Amino acid sequence: MRGGGSKVASKFWRKLAGLFNKRLKSDDTLVERGPLLRDDESEHQATIDTIGRLRRTGANLSKGHRVDFHVAAPTESAGQLIARDVSRHGFDVDIVAEEKGDWTVWCTKSLMLEEPVITQTEELLQRIPEPYEGYIDGWGTDPVK
Predict the structure, then answer these.
(1) What is the pLDDT of residues 24-66, one digit of tens each?
(2) Is residue 105 a contact partner of residue 32, using CB atoms and an 8 Å limit?
(3) Which of 22, 58, 94, 105 has the greatest CB tally within 10 Å of its CB?
(4) What is the CATH number of the domain that holds 14?
């Protein structure tokens, strides 16, 4: 249930991210932020650093970006419940099985790459999966020039 952007590129990056434990850093077309740390000050700084990396790769921060947030789920049924709840907030969702038997819910939405916007979205995506033993595991986007 994804819309917009390049589905082929997104699927390629998802597969590659899975191979590298979802810890991609930066290249010409993608910048990702790894798992959230549960320390508000560190979280804030990590988000600022990621937005800075996007700016340095040439991203136009005055334009909206399709941002992929990764939410880890322990089971397929938990992933489906998380996807249902997240989609109610205007996200496109896609549930992907991972090699270790857990699941990732990809939550995609067009957003401005501003620290308060990203932080509020991270907080939302931390709260929603908690009842299902899930958690937000990072985010990424293709820079819009």
Answers:
(1) 334 444 566 665 545 567 777 888 999 999 999 999 999 999 9
(2) no
(3) 105
(4) 3.30.70.970
